[in-house]
UniProtKB/TrEMBL annotation, chain A:
SUPFAM superfamilies for the chain: LuxS/MPP-like metallohydrolase (SSF63411)
UniProt keyword annotations, A-Z: Hydrolase, Protease
One GO-annotated biological process of the protein: proteolysis
Gene3D superfamilies attached to this UniProt entry: Metalloenzyme, LuxS/M16 peptidase-like
Domain Peptidase M16 C-terminal: 184-357
GO molecular function terms listed in the Swiss-Prot or TrEMBL record: metal ion binding; peptidase activity
Transmembrane annotation, as ranges: none
Keyword Hydrolase: yes
Name of a matching Pfam family: Peptidase_M16_C
InterPro entries assigned to the protein according to its UniProt record, in alphabetical order: Metalloenz_LuxS/M16, MPP/UQCRC_Complex, Peptidase_M16_C
Organism: Peribacillus muralis
Identification of the protein by name: Zinc protease
UniProtKB/TrEMBL annotation, chain B:
Ranges for domain Peptidase M16 N-terminal: 63-175
InterPro entries: Metalloenz_LuxS/M16, MPP/UQCRC_Complex, Pept_M16_N, Peptidase_M16_C
The name this protein goes by in its record: Zinc protease
Residue ranges annotated for the Peptidase M16 C-terminal domain, each copy included: 181-362
Pfam families: Peptidase_M16, Peptidase_M16_C
Keywords associated with the record: Hydrolase, Protease
Biological source species: Peribacillus muralis
Entry GO MF terms: metal ion binding; peptidase activity
Domain of life of the native organism: Bacteria
BP-aspect Gene Ontology terms: proteolysis
Length: 426, 428
């Protein structure tokens, strides 16, 4: 029996994914719209979902739309913009109670489809433009969100590392857009671009819950109609060689220095050695038994957090640690030493087994949450692969120490970024 | 073992009180991969003044010690417990709140082994001078991290404005200076006082065998020979009804200003259904005024006074309670004035009508059901409720009984000038 899988149906203009499970009290719809990350359109795509989320032609104000959601037993409705590899992905999620837990038996799943359709296909319009007042409000709100990124120093330093490291690549763009472009967007230009998204984006609709496949298909056919398209697929862009390592030190008024380090792995989701890379990251800095946690935090007592994570579709490995400003050199030395240990294969079979168990555990936990399950399944869409969760588990299980050491040979240090108080780092 | 069935919710909860006083709850969840267990003591950052076990005099301990103890409990003579959990494929964690310290793990295999590890490590303290000193560096960095976080500073700034004496105003982790005073003997004293099974609750949720799990816990506890221990005596200074400070401005390295309004609650020695009703009705009151379906929210948003970061919440525990309302704002002064004026007007029923109430109740019932998808939510909230003599599964029935008079009464009782304060974070 497979652990969790989606039944995929090709529809005109989109793919319908259905996952049947009775473990949730809600049913979840997630619509994902994907296109390449570009400098020209990044801010448009960041703004569109928030405008759509505000109102529709049937519910022309936010209170009217939100009151309707409340009436549907507080249906959750969220939008999100993210980047995966060099794609920018806009998501709309509706999470609605399964009526079998209510004394009232209104067919809520159909209502959810109706609402999604209303939001996507019937926005509040003014001729061939979005409602100007809504656009003004959302531009202001996005502007404030963009400004507040730098107020969260942990997030800011992670963003800055990527900017410095990927200067010449689309990946450097912030998925939430930028302030300059925001000045030039009008209700007309945004609406025109949205029509293009509807016509050209690669679109996937996930439906998860205690549901019936044929019923879901009928609802999808009734509520979601799109024109056929051939989505843009980007060439692989994970192989940039590092010419020279960069070190960027930026001064700011911070009590705690933020150290972020980026490596290129030249391996992406879907590659045969991706499973080994995931284990490499786990032993190096992914978990609380990892080399970074033990050596930077537990032994040297230098940090509260010292960890690493992967950008699976871009092939990057990122380290982050919060340290005393004066401990920069020492922390860096310890981190470099751990990377060397990894490359030389100085880790035990026991550490490897432990990491496999934790990776497996983490995956199983992620798919216990419907939105987590969608994220896992969506890896296949981004990478154009068809890897089942069972494959994922089996491949992880059979990965050997030699394969992990081989991954280490591909990893190159690219950029070190340190956000610190002026003049104190040693 | 007692079985409590929640027919409409299709859930069954099993309960047993062990001979040593430990409360155990098991909620089986078929279909899930993950099992989750929390082992929680009724001891948090506010419990800094108490009679230590076997002592007759009250004693006061350094700020941040409950949290420090939480960190140190993971370390044993032969290494740290994180390692053992991860060898067993589990991930472990812990947190300290104002009133609780919880230890937890989640795993998708070897559940019995992991559960035993959880219970045993919490019930087997090992503190040495050397490891206590080392931890000061790590926690020092945790404190610095929060010091750079403007949202955290705003949150504690607002609470500190409200309280004159109550230790809820003190940061949970303490300060770099206060933790410097902590010794291994103090940790043992706190441990022995608060970590007796009779002051603790164990909650298990997941695809588990109920009988087998209960037996494992019974056997584990029977072997340890705990003797009876009286309830811990804690002491809190009298707290005036008024706020300590009407306004505070923190200058930080931020681009967007932040505003938070705090409203201090009185009559905060409630428990059981009374507390549950207070909490739910106050949260509904805030939701009706400030939720996204309210015209007031639309107005504030349209005027550019708030953005998506705007939020509101009411919490109450033994001895303290407050409402917090705020978020990022380009116009902090205007937002402050608008919020005060909306709250004042609500005393006359403004924004609080029957239709809005029914809609909000429906919304709350839906979000409660949604949160039952999450084993973490169930375990954490159930424990919090149980320590306050409330039952998590009463939420829906209490919500259904709320009337518009209840909500108007909240407005009348809560909104009093001298119990309101504001904190702002402004760019340097």
């Amino acid at each position: 029996m497979s652990i969790a899988s989606d039944t995929i149906m090709e529809k005109s203009g989109y793919r319908l994914h259905v996952v049947r499970t009775d473990k949730y009290k809600t049913n979840t719809l997630v619509l994902k719209m994907k296109a390449p990350l570009t400098k020209e359109k990044v801010t448009y795509r960041a703004l569109v979902p928030y405008v759509l989320q505000s109102n529709t032609s049937k519910y022309p104000t936010t209170p009217e739309l939100r009151s309707y959601l409340d009436e549907l037993y507080g249906a959750g409705f969220y939008v999100d913009v993210a980047k995966k590899g060099e794609y920018q992905i806009v998501s709309f999620t509706i999470d609605i109670v399964n009526e079998k837990f209510l004394s009232d038996s209104t067919p809520l799943l159909e209502k959810a489809f109706g609402l999604l359709s209303e939001v996507i296909f019937h926005p509040k319009k003014n001729g061939e433009a979005f409602d100007p007042k809504t656009v003004t409000n959302e531009i202001r709100s996005l502007k404030q969100r963009l400004q507040s990124i730098s107020d969260d120093k942990m997030r800011y330093s992670a963003t800055r590392l990527v900017e410095e490291m990927c200067k010449t690549e689309p990946y450097a763009l912030e998925a939430s857009g930028n302030l300059e472009d925001l000045k030039t967007i009008t209700p007309e230009s945004l609406f025109t671009y949205y029509q293009k998204m509807l016509a050209e984006d690669e679109i996937d609709l996930y439906v998860i819950g205690d549901i019936n496949e044929s019923e879901v298909e009928a609802l999808a056919d009734k509520y979601v109609t799109l024109k056929a398209r051939v989505p843009v697929r980007l060439p692989r862009n994970t192989d940039k060689e590092v010419e020279k390592e960069k070190e960027v030190i930026e001064n700011s008024d911070v009590k705690q220095g933020k150290l972020n380090i980026g490596y290129r792995t030249h391996i992406a989701y879907g590659d045969p050695d991706y499973y080994a890379l995931q284990l490499f990251n786990g032993i190096f800095g992914g978990f609380s038994h990892s080399k970074l946690f033990i050596n930077v935090r537990e032994k040297a007592s230098l940090a509260y957090y010292a960890a690493s994570r992967l950008e699976s579709h871009k092939g990057l490995l990122m380290v982050m640690a919060g340290i005393e400003n004066a401990n920069y050199k020492q922390a860096l030395e310890i981190i470099h030493a751990q990377m060397n240990e990894m490359k030389q294969g100085n880790f035990s079979e026991a550490e490897l087994e432990q990491t496999k168990a934790v990776v497996r555990n983490q995956l199983l936990e992620t798919i216990d949450v419907s939105r987590g399950l969608v994220e896992i399944l969506y890896h296949n869409v981004i990478s154009g692969q068809n890897i089942s969760l069972d494959d994922w588990f089996a491949e992880t299980e059979r990965t050997t120490k030699e394969e992990i050491v081989a991954v280490g040979q591909k990893i190159q240090l690219d950029t070190i970024y340190f956000l610190t108080e002026a003049g104190v780092q040693e | 073992m007692e079985k409590i069935a929640f027919t409409q919710l299709k859930e069954e909860l099993f309960h047993e009180k062990m001979d040593n006083g430990l409360e155990v709850y098991i909620l089986p969840k078929a279909g899930f991969n993950k099992s989750f267990a929390t082992f929680t003591t009724n001891y948090g950052s506010v419990d800094n003044h108490f009679k230590p076990l076997n002592e007759t005099e009250f004693s006061k301990v350094p700020d941040g010690i409950a949290h420090f103890l939480e960190h140190k409990l993971f370390e044993k003579e032969d290494g740290d417990v994180f390692q053992q959990f991860s060898k067993q494929g589990a991930s472990a964690n812990a947190f300290t709140s104002f009133t609780r310290t919880a230890y937890l793990f989640s795993s998708t295999s070897d559940f019995n082994k992991n559960l035993t590890t959880l219970i045993d490590f919490v019930q087997d303290p090992y503190f040495s001078e050397k490891t206590v000193e080392k931890e000061k560096g790590i926690i020092g960095q945790e404190i610095n991290m929060y010091d750079d976080n403007s949202d955290w500073r705003l949150y504690f700034g607002t609470i500190a404005n409200m309280y004159h004496h109550h230790p809820v105003k003190i940061d949970i982790a303490g300060t770099v200076a206060s933790i410097a005073d902590i010794t291994k003997d103090m940790l043992y004293e706190c441990y022995n006082t608060f970590y007796h099974p009779s002051n603790m609750l164990l909650f298990v949720v997941g695809p588990v065998d109920v009988e087998g799990t209960m037996k494992l816990i019974r056997d584990n506890q029977a072997d340890k020979g705990y003797s009876e221990q009286p309830e811990v005596e804690r002491k809190f200074a009298d707290e005036p009804h008024t706020v300590s400070k009407k306004k505070e401005i923190l200058k930080m390295n931020v681009q967007t200003p932040k505003v938070m309004l705090g409203i201090k609650a009185i009559d905060v020695h409630q428990s059981g259904l009374q507390l549950l009703k207070r909490e739910l009705s106050t949260n509904i009151y805030l939701e009706m005024l400030f939720g996204k379906s309210s015209p007031l929210h639309e107005e504030l948003y349209g005027e550019g006074l708030i953005d998506q970061s705007f939020s509101y919440d009411y919490t109450q525990e033994q001895g303290f309670g407050f409402a917090l309302i705020g978020g990022d704002s380009a116009k902090p002064e205007e937002l402050t004035e608008s919020l005060f004026s909306i709250l004042q007007k609500s005393k006359t029923g403004f924004g609080l009508n029957e239709e809005g109430l029914q809609r909000t109740i429906k919304k709350k019932i839906g979000s409660f059901l949604r949160s039952l998808n999450s084993p973490e939510y169930i375990a954490n909230q159930f424990t919090r409720y149980a320590f306050n003599d409330m039952n998590l599964f009463d939420v829906v029935s209490v919500l259904e009984q709320l009337t518009i008079e209840d909500i108007r009464k909240v407005a009348g009782d809560l909104i009093v000038d001298e119990r309101m304060t504001v904190c702002q974070v402004l760019p340097k």
